[in-house]
Design a protein that fits this description.
This protein has 985 residues and is of the alpha+beta class. The chain folds into four domains: 235 residues, Cytochrome Bc1 Complex, Chain A, domain 1; 183 residues, Metalloenzyme, LuxS/M16 peptidase-like (Cytochrome Bc1 Complex, Chain A, domain 1, 2-Layer Sandwich); 230 residues, Cytochrome Bc1 Complex, Chain A, domain 1, CATH 3.30.830; 194 residues, Metalloenzyme, LuxS/M16 peptidase-like (Cytochrome Bc1 Complex, Chain A, domain 1, 2-Layer Sandwich), CATH 3.30.830.10. 44% of the residues lie in helices and 21% in strands. The chain is built from 34 helices and 31 strands. Strands 1, 2, 3, 4, 5, 6, 7, 8 and 11 form a nine-stranded mixed beta sheet that branches. A hairpin with a 2-residue loop joins strand 18 and strand 19. The longest helix is centred in the C-terminal third of the chain and has 23 residues.
Length: 985
C-alpha cells in the first residue's frame, strides 16, 4: 500500500503530512495532511478498493432557520465557473458511471461526496465537484428555483393568488410535518439555547422566505473557502496526482483566511426544563397515542474521544436490546408503544447528548415518563452492570467496526460519516475507526471500580442540563399555518404595484424559459459506451450438499465475519397464513427460543452474534410475469470464533420459538406498528406505487400484502387487540413455524473467506441435522385477487403529495426489457426532473423500471401538486412517442442504467445477490445478454416500447396518490368522473 511510503513531518506538493496511522481492523491506512498555504485539511484512507470516493466539506453553522446552508447546498450544484450550465449535478448523473453522488447538509457542516470505480469517471466528477463547491455561479434564478420565490398560482395571471414556491421550501414543508424530524429539531432548539443547533439548518418553512439572494452569496463567501475545508479521499487511487489536481484547480487560487466557523461548547443549564410542542395532524385523524416524549441530557464535547466511546457503551448498556434496563422499563411501562426516534447517544454535534423517550404516547404522560427514566437510572446506578453484559456490548462494538458494509451506501461513505463530526470539530478522527486503545483503557477503568455507574451519575443523574419535551398532535396547527401564510401573501399582494406584479410575471416567464431551453452541455465531461465493462464480473461459488440440503459457499473477503442465509419455501402455508408472514418474521427473532426467554435471548444475541433477522422474499421468474417464488429468509452473522454459537441460536429460533408471552407479542406489535407508520412519510412514493402495482400482477399484489399499506393497516389492527385476544395470533405463529422449518425446500448460503469454509462446515451440519426431514404437505393456494380499483387515493396526514402511475410490461428475458430500462432513465433525466422538480417544485420526479416484476413506474416525491403531475405523466408519454430526444440523451440514459447495474456491493451483499440470481434461474449468460442488448438500444426501439406499453389509453396501468385528505378531495373535485377512489389507512 502506498500509505507505507508517507511519514509524519514529510512535505508533499504544498501539503504537510501530519500523521500516518495503520487501521488493521479495516485493512486501511489513514494519512492526514494540512495544506501549508491555506490551512485546508486533507485525509486519505488508503485501502485496497477501486471504488474511490472523494468529498469536500465545510463547517457551515447557520445563525437562523432560513435554511441558508441547505439552499446553498442545492444552489452550488446549479452551475459553476468552468461548467456554466443550468444543472451540472443532475447532468453528470447521466454522463457518469458513479456509484454515489450527492450532497448533505447537517446541523453545522455540509459535505459533497461522490464515488466511482471508473478512474476516468472519478476524474471527471472531481473536476465538477471542485468547481461547484469553490466557484459556483449562484445565480438569482437558481436561488429562486431551489430555495424560494413568490409566483402567482397561474404564473401568467396576476389575478390568481400568490404562492411560495421552491424545491427546498416544499422539501422542508414535508420534512417539518414528519413528527420524527420535528422532534429532533425541537429538541435541538431546547437543548442548545445559545449555539447554532437551536436553529434548523434545513430551514423552517415559515422562515425560508426571509432569506435573500445576497445573504446566500455572503454565506458562501464566508464558509466555502479552503481555510474552512475538509477534503477526504478513499481507495487505491494515486494520492500525489490527486493532491496535485486539487492544488492546481483550487488551492493555488486562495490565500489563508480566518473563517470564524468554530462552534463553541453549549453553555450549561442550571436547572432542568420541561416543554410542549405541537405538530400538524389532519382533522380526520385520531389523536390518541400520536404523541412523542423525549428526555435528553447534554453530555461531553465531541473532541473527547474516550468519553464518547464510554457514553456509546453506556447507551448500549441502557438501551441496546430489549433486556437493557432502560429499554425494558420504557416498553414495559405501558406509557407508549415504542422508543422515540433519536433515543440513545447522539455524537454528531459539537456538544453531544443522550436521549430516551417514547412514541405512541399521550401528552399527559410526560411527567410519568420523565419520572420513570430517572427512577430507572437511579436503580441502575445502584445495582450496576455485570461484566458479562459489558463484554457483550464491547463484542457488538468490535463486530460493527470489523464488518465491511456498503450495500445501501459505499463503505467509504459509511467510514466518512463515522469520523466527519469529530474531525470537523477538532477531535481525533482516528478514534472513530480504531478504538482498541480506548477499549483497553476502558477495561482498566472497569478493574478499578464502578466506572459506568459513575459515568451515569455524572452525565445523567447529577446533570441539571436536562430537557423533557412532549410533541403532541394538533389538528388546527396545519390550517392555522396555512392561514398565516395566506394572509402574509395577501398582505404582500395588497402592497404590490402594477409594475411589481408585472415583474413577478416576467421573472416566472424567464425561469420557465430557462428551464425549457435546450442547453449546450459540451463543456461537461462525459464517458462513452466504450467505457462500460462489456460483461458482468462473475461471483465465484461452490455448490454442495449437507444433510440432503443444497448449500452454496461464497468465498468473500468478509474480514473474518461469517454470514449464513436460510431460504425457506412457503408452499406449505395456507392462504390464511400468508398475510401473517411479515408479522411472523418480525416476532420470530424478538421472542424467547429454546431454554431462553426473550430477555436472555436478546443478551445472548448481542454477546455472540451480529444479529439474526427474518424477512419475506419474493423472486419473479425471468421469463413469466405470473410465476414467482414466495418464501422467507433467515439471516445470521457472527465473527468466525462465534459461528458455532450462531448456528445453535438459529436452531433454537427455528425449532423452539416461544410465542406464549402475549405481553411480549403486544409490545413488539406496537413497535412494528409505530415503525411502519414512521416510514410512510419518508417513503410515500414507494407505498403509493405498491398500491397501484397491486392492481396489475399477482407478485405485485403479494408485495403490497407483505410490505405495502395493506400490511401497515394489518399490523395496526393486530396491535390494537387486547392482550388476552392475542392467543389466536400466537397459535398462528406456532403453526407457521412448524410448517416452515424443515429440511425439505430449504436452501442455504454461506459467505466468508474460503480458508474459513472448514470452520463453518461442522456447526452448519450439526444445525441441519436438528431440522426435521419429513416434507410437509403442499397446500393448493387460491389465486391472488388483484385490487380492482385502478385510480386510488390514500389519505395520510402530510402537507405534500406522492403521485404515481404504474404500467405492466414484460419479464426480464423479453426483447423490450432493455429499451424499457433505458426509457426509465431517459424519462427521468430529460423530462420528469424538469417538469416535476424544476417547474413543479417537488423534491423529486422520477421513473423506474423493475426488470423482475415487469413494472414501469412514474413517481413524484414531496410534491405540491396532484393534477398537474398526472398531466405531466400523460405529456411524458407523448414526448416519448414523439421520439424528440437525441442520440446523446440515449447514450447518457444507457450510462445511467449501467451505473445502477454495476453498483458495488459489500462482500456479503455480493454473495446474497448471486444467491438470489441462482434461485431465480437468472444466469450470468442471461445477464450478459441483457448488457449486450442495452448497448444497442436506439430511438426506434424506445418509441416502439413506449407505444406498446406506456400509451396513456392502455388498460394495463394504474394510478395511486398518497396525500392529505384536503388535497385529495380538491383533486377529485376537478377530476369529476375520473376521480380517485379514496382510502383511509
Amino acid at each position: 500500500m502506498q500509505g507505507n511510503i508517507y511519514k509524519s513531518g514529510q512535505r508533499l506538493l504544498g501539503f504537510f503530512v501530519e500523521q500516518v496511522d495503520a487501521l488493521p481492523a479495516i485493512n486501511a491506512t489513514m494519512i492526514r495532511l494540512r495544506h501549508e498555504k491555506t490551512g485546508a485539511r486533507f485525509m486519505h484512507l488508503e485501502r485496497d478498493d477501486n471504488n474511490h470516493l472523494f468529498s469536500v466539506g465545510f463547517r457551515t453553522p447557520p445563525d437562523d432557520s432560513t435554511g441558508v446552508a441547505h439552499i446553498l447546498e442545492h444552489t452550488v450544484l446549479c452551475g459553476s465557473q468552468h461548467f456554466p450550465v443550468r444543472d451540472p449535478f443532475f447532468s453528470m448523473l447521466k454522463r457518469s458511471l458513479n456509484t454515489f453522488m450527492n450532497a448533505m447538509t447537517a446541523s453545522d457542516w455540509t459535505i459533497y461526496p461522490f464515488s466511482s470505480q471508473n478512474r476516468k469517471d472519478f476524474s471527471n466528477l472531481l473536476e465538477i465537484y471542485l468547481d461547484a463547491a469553490f466557484f459556483p455561479l449562484l445565480s438569482e434564478r437558481d436561488f429562486s428555483q431551489e430555495g424560494h420565490r413568490i409566483e402567482f398560482e397561474d404564473p401568467a395571471d396576476s389575478g390568481s393568488p400568490l404562492l411560495y414556491k421552491g424545491v427546498v421550501y416544499n422539501e422542508m414543508k414535508g420534512a417539518m410535518s414528519d413528527p420524527s424530524s420535528l422532534l429532533s429539531r425541537r429538541l435541538g432548539r431546547a437543548l442548545y439555547p445559545t449555539t447554532t443547533y437551536r436553529h434548523n439548518s434545513g430551514g423552517e418553512p415559515a422562515d425560508i422566505p426571509r432569506l435573500t439572494w445576497q445573504q446566500l452569496r455572503e454565506f458562501h463567501a464566508r464558509y466555502y473557502h479552503p481555510s474552512n475545508a475538509w477534503f477526504f479521499s478513499y481507495g487505491d487511487l494515486d494520492l500525489e496526482a490527486h493532491l496535485q489536481l486539487i492544488e492546481d484547480r483550487v488551492l493555488s487560487r486562495f490565500e489563508r483566511i480566518e473563517p470564524d466557523s468554530e462552534v463553541p461548547s453549549e453553555q450549561r443549564l442550571d436547572t432542568p426544563c420541561r416543554l410542549t410542542e405541537s405538530y400538524p395532524l389532519d382533522a380526520g385523524e385520531p389523536k390518541e397515542k400520536k404523541s412523542l416524549a423525549q428526555v435528553a441530557w447534554l453530555t461531553c464535547d465531541i473532541d473527547d474521544s474516550f468519553e464518547r466511546l464510554a457514553l456509546t457503551v453506556l447507551s448500549s448498556l441502557l438501551l441496546g436490546n430489549p433486556a437493557a434496563p432502560l429499554y425494558k422499563a420504557l416498553l414495559d411501562s405501558g406509557l407508549g408503544d415504542n422508543l422515540a426516534p433519536g433515543t440513545g447517544y447522539q455524537d454528531d454535534n459539537r456538544t453531544t447528548y443522550f436521549a430516551a423517550g417514547l412514541q405512541g404516547t399521550e401528552p399527559e404522560h410526560l411527567p410519568a415518563i420523565e419520572k420513570l427514566i430517572l427512577e430507572t437510572l437511579t436503580t441502575v446506578a445502584e445495582q450496576g452492570f455485570t461484566r458479562e453484559r459489558i463484554e457483550g456490548v464491547l463484542h457488538r462494538l468490535e463486530f460493527s467496526n470489523r464488518e465491511v458494509t456498503g450495500d445501501s451506501y459505499p463503505y467509504s461513505l459509511i467510514l466518512l460519516m463515522r469520523l466527519i463530526g469529530s474531525w470537523i470539530h477538532g477531535g481525533d478522527p482516528l478514534a472513530a475507526l480504531n478504538f482498541e486503545d480506548h477499549v483497553a483503557r476502558l477495561r482498566q477503568e472497569l478493574d478499578r471500580g464502578p466506572f459506568f455507574e459513575n459515568l451515569l451519575r455524572r452525565y445523567l443523574l447529577d446533570n441539571p442540563h436536562r430537557v423533557a419535551l412532549m410533541l403532541q398532535p394538533d389538528s388546527e396547527l396545519g390550517p392555522r399555518q396555512d392561514e398565516e401564510t395566506r394572509r402574509e401573501l395577501e398582505d404582500l399582494r395588497a402592497r404590490l404595484t402594477p409594475e411589481e406584479e408585472s415583474e413577478i410575471i416576467e421573472r416566472a416567464a424567464q425561469l420557465q424559459q430557462a428551464q425549457e431551453a435546450e442547453e449546450d452541455l459540451s463543456c461537461l465531461p462525459t464517458l462513452e459506451l466504450e467505457d462500460i465493462d462489456r460483461a458482468e464480473r462473475p461471483v465465484a461459488a461452490t455448490e454442495d450438499t449437507l444433510q440432503a440440503v443444497p448449500v452454496t459457499w461464497f468465498g468473500q473477503p468478509t474480514n473474518g465475519v461469517g454470514y449464513v442465509t436460510l431460504n425457506l419455501s412457503v408452499d406449505h402455508l395456507s392462504d390464511e397464513q400468508l398475510p401473517y408472514l411479515p408479522i411472523f418474521c418480525s416476532l420470530l427473532t424478538q421472542v424467547g427460543a429454546g431454554e431462553r426467554d426473550y430477555l436472555q435471548m436478546a443478551e445472548k444475541l448481542e454477546a455472540v452474534t451480529g444479529g439474526i433477522q427474518a424477512r419475506t422474499s419474493l423472486l419473479e421468474a425471468p421469463d413469466a410475469l405470473e410465476t414467482f417464488q414466495a418464501g422467507i429468509q433467515l439471516k445470521g452473522k457472527a465473527l468466525l470464533r462465534n459461528l458455532p454459537a450462531l448456528f445453535e441460536l438459529i436452531g433454537d429460533v427455528c425449532l423452539a420459538p416461544d410465542f406464549s408471552d402475549l405481553q411480549r407479542l403486544h409490545t413488539v406489535l406496537n413497535q412494528i406498528k409505530v415503525s411502519l407508520e414512521n416510514s410512510v412519510p419518508a417513503s410515500g412514493h414507494t407505498y403509493a406505487a405498491r398500491t397501484a402495482a397491486a392492481c396489475l400482477s399477482p407478485v405485485a399484489r403479494m408485495r403490497e400484502l407483505w410490505s405495502g399499506l395493506e400490511q401497515v393497516s394489518m399490523v395496526a389492527k393486530q396491535a390494537e387487540q387486547p392482550i388476552e385476544q392475542l392467543q389466536g395470533l400466537a397459535e398462528k405463529m406456532r403453526q407457521i413455524a412448524a410448517a416452515l422449518f424443515r429440511r425439505n425446500g430449504l436452501q442455504v448460503a454461506v459467505a466468508i473467506e474460503e480458508e474459513n469454509f472448514a470452520a463453518v462446515r461442522e456447526p452448519l451440519e450439526t444445525f441441519l441435522a436438528r431440522l426435521p426431514e419429513n416434507p410437509g404437505a403442499s397446500v393448493q393456494n387460491g389465486d391472488l385477487t388483484l385490487n380492482a380499483s385502478r385510480r386510488q387515493g390514500w389519505v395520510w396526514s402530510i402537507p405534500v403529495s406522492y403521485v404515481t402511475r404504474v404500467f405492466r410490461t414484460v419479464p426480464y428475458r423479453h426483447q423490450h426489457t432493455a429499451p424499457l430500462m433505458v426509457m426509465a432513465k431517459l424519462l427521468r433525466a430529460e423530462y420528469l426532473h424538469r417538469e416535476i422538480r424544476e417547474k413543479g417544485g417537488a423534491y423529486g420526479g422520477m421513473a423506474s423500471y423493475n426488470t423482475e416484476s415487469g413494472l414501469f413506474s412514474m413517481l413524484s416525491y414531496r410534491d405540491p401538486h396532484i393534477l398537474r403531475t398526472l398531466k405531466v405523466y400523460d405529456q411524458a408519454i407523448e414526448w416519448l412517442l414523439s421520439g424528440d430526444f437525441s442520440d446523446e440523451m440515449i447514450k447518457e440514459a444507457i450510462l445511467a442504467v449501467f451505473s445502477d447495474l454495476d453498483r458495488p456491493l459489500s462482500p456479503s451483499g455480493q454473495a446474497a445477490h448471486e444467491f438470489a440470481n441462482r434461485r431465480q434461474g437468472l444466469t450470468l449468460e442471461m445477464r450478459n445478454q441483457l448488457r449486450d442488448q442495452l448497448l444497442t438500444v436506439d430511438r426506434q426501439s424506445l418509441v416502439e416500447a413506449a407505444q406498446t406499453y406506456l400509451h396513456q389509453d392502455r388498460a394495463d396501468s394504474a394510478i395511486s396518490v398518497l396525500a392529505g385528505e384536503t388535497a385529495l378531495e380538491s383533486a377529485n373535485a376537478d377530476l369529476g368522473s375520473a376521480a380517485l377512489e379514496l382510502h383511509r389507512i
